[in-house]
Amino acid sequence: MNSSHSPSDTGNHTAVVTRISDTQWHAVEDDRVVGHGDASRRPDGRLFISIDAWHEAVFDRIADTMLTDLPTPLHTVVDEADHDSKSAWERAGFTTGRREQGYHVPTDPQVTGLGSVRPPSNVTIVPAGEAEEGPLRALDRVIRGEVEAAVGWRTMPAEVLPRPAGTTLVDPSKYAVARHFDQYVGLVRVTPLTRRPRIGLIAVRADSHRRGIARALLAHALGSLHRSGTASAYAEVDDSNAAATALFEGIGARRAGSTIELVRH
After folding, report:
1. Residue 208: DSSP 8-state
2. What residue stretches are annotated with the N-acetyltransferase domain (predicted)?
3. 122-150, pLDDT tens digit by residue?
4. What angle do the packed helices 242-249 and 213-227 form, to 10 degrees?
5. Domains plus CATH for the chain?
């Protein structure tokens, strides 16, 4: 275990930061835990850290120790409205890597204007739970490769990042797909969370872009939620994804705060 000492503003004593496991650090002062840090490696390999401390000096001491103990690059996520947290991480040398905007998405077709939207010619929507797993996984691999070659898969929501086996598709029952003749060309993933369902991903093969398939998939997903009695869903969009931003804002989705991913190289 690694320990560090530094004065803190919690009193006239010395804070001791101790690494208690490979992924956890504690700051102890006067026999009290006054802060802790955690590290976790995402499925795509990125290392994320978090720190919980009441005082700036304790935060800084924990950060110093973790930065000494861990390899870079390191990542963390903060609410953009939490200026104190953002400033604390910036003191530790972190800079903004990407920004993700949250949206509350209405499901009522009279609000979204999606009630009359239909898939393009020769395209049908296969409801969630009815897609064939083999073709769905093949589509997932194609889309992942296209995204990685363009903006990078790191811009995708955390829940669809690749797992150790190399797949981003964990539960096929959560996906509805667009089928063009006998080929799957697009997908939408909806997680039925208790408070508000989450639209985790909408994606269409590059060779099927600009045909209205993404809009048809969204209309299907939101329509299904509306018929089940769900008034709204939640979605997160990377700020650099202009097409997704236009898609959601075009159906009346309301911005609901944003998060920032900070990185230290």
Report:
1. G
2. 123-265
3. 999 999 999 999 999 999 889 888 877 76
4. 40
5. 3-100 (3.40.630.30), 101-260 (3.40.630.30)
Q: What is the DSSP letter of 32?
A: E
Instruction: Evaluate whether 217 touches 178 at the Cβ level (below 8 Å).
Output: yes
DSSP-based helix, strand, coil % in the chain, nearest 5? 30, 35, 35
Closest by CA to 200, choosing from 212, 180, 217, 183, is 217
Pairing outcome for strands 123-126 and 47-53: unpaired
Distances (CA, A) of 147 to 50, 111, 144, 150, 153: 28, 31, 5, 5, 6
The Cα angle at residue 102 between residues 77 and 116, in degrees rounded to 5: 155
Measured distance CA(206)–CA(147) in Å, rounded: 9
**How many CB atoms neighbour CB 194 within 10 A?**
5
Other Cβ atoms closer than 10 A to 86 = 18
Q: Report the candidate in 172, 192, 201 with the shortest Cα–Cα distance to residue 233.
A: 192
Residue with tokens 């202009």: 242
Interval 189-248: pLDDT, tens: 998 877 889 998 899 999 999 999 999 999 999 999 999 999 999 999 988 888 889 999
**What's the pTM?**
0.78
3-class SS of residue 119: coil
Looking at residue 98, its amino acid is R
